[in-house]
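Issue 218. Parser rejects a valid record. Input:
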Amino acid sequence: MNDLQKQQSSREALVVFQANKFCPATSHLPQDYDHQIAQLNGVREVVPIQVYTNNCRASLDVIVFYGVPPEKLRRVRDFELVQGDWSEFESNQDSVIMGRSVAQRRGITSGDTFSLGRLNVKIAGIYRSDDPAEEHYIYSHLDFLQRTRGFNQVGTVTQLEVHLKPDTDPIQVCQTIDNHFRNGSIATDTRPKGVFQAKSLGDLTQLINMTRYLGYGCVGLVLSLLTTTTLMSVHDRIKEHAVLQTIGFSGGRVFGLVITETIVLSSLGGMIGVGLAMIILSISNLGLAAQAITIAFTPSLDIVISGLLISFISGAVAGVAPAIFAGRVEIVPALRLP
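Output the parser choked on:
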């Protein structure tokens, strides 16, 4: 989420939404607002966007359609087609270009047809983007999405995306836009794009905070399992530890052997777990979405390092008690055990 906000903030873009509305299905701005906003100082371009999604709540399988004028789409989005033809998209109202993550998740290629509710479209192309979250969207013609049977939204849009000129104060432009339409037919709520997305993902923020506690619980469970397993192993080999001390191994040396064994086992388990997680993230194209905003789950070196470090520390902590027990074994009583 932090990466998403940083990327959008760096693009100097604002989102104009209907005031006091949340889900895209409830926001209906007059499309002609774009001409009025375009006249304001510091505004480079205004893009009307119609949004259609199958679910406004948090979900792992949300499909989001963005209806955008094709001639503006190429100027405000930085992606490249890996399949299909851009001219086919521009010339056919019912054609769309689909993000690579959505296409792979649904098993779709260029030239296929796709249906969602009342929408029936043809895939004119598949695109890739440097922003993983961007690959979870489907772009269609604005007119097509407005005129689809049952929608009846001609003349209105879900939101307006305002792109600013360099060195323009985005907060000042936000205030100017909202003040301009305060007494208009529909009031607006304008925010920098990153801030708008962060607010829309409020439900996901709470969900992520809850999963942190789940993660702490999992680490605690791993610690208890490692400690119990190592302690049982020490009990089973108590004679071996006594023999080691008999031939000259000190208690500290035995302590080191046991705790090293625990760290090695924990680290190997961590490597397997982190490796499987990275593979799943790489091939599954998972994304979590809410209110038509998507967060992409992407593998990273930070995740790998964190996972391995936690595994190492868990092994060291879990091995302390069994290692102390093994290092303090009394030789004679231990050798007399059956």
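Fixed in the parser; the record now loads. Residues 204-336 form one domain.
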